[in-house]
Amino acid sequence: MNITTPTTESVCEATLRREIGRFLRATRMRGELDTDRRRRGRRRCHRSWPLLVSFENSYDYSDMCVALHNASPLGIAFLCPRQIPVGTTVLIRLFWHDEFGVFVPAVVRHASPNHHGFIIGCVFVIPSARRTRRGRVPYL
Predict the structure, then answer these.
(1) What is the pTM assigned to this prediction?
(2) Alpha-carbon distance 123 to 115, whole Å?
(3) For residue 73, is pLDDT > 70?
(4) How many CB atoms lie within 10 A of CB 18?
């Protein structure tokens, strides 16, 4: 009998997908879905929600509490008091109050100034996930 065990990468991928799915279900239950789909492939859910953002391999930043702006299966946008450079990898605890919560990696795609600081848009990074031709994760 040949028994296969899941690799560390597949366990990591499954854990991240489960955490993102749990987060999206929670935001949809308590938030409002975006009705404007002009430039978007996926609908966003708008909700004010506290998040904890950490920075991978950086001594320039400390952990920050930020507020969710919107979320979709592919990524997240949050309100932040400071600009984060495009291309920076951030680690986001989607459930900030859960001390054992998973930090989900995401890459900053845009940082747009607004009257509260910046809206930081990120795409989730799932290790070993299948990617489309455009480099996106097809489904979470």
Answers:
(1) 0.72
(2) 23
(3) yes
(4) 12
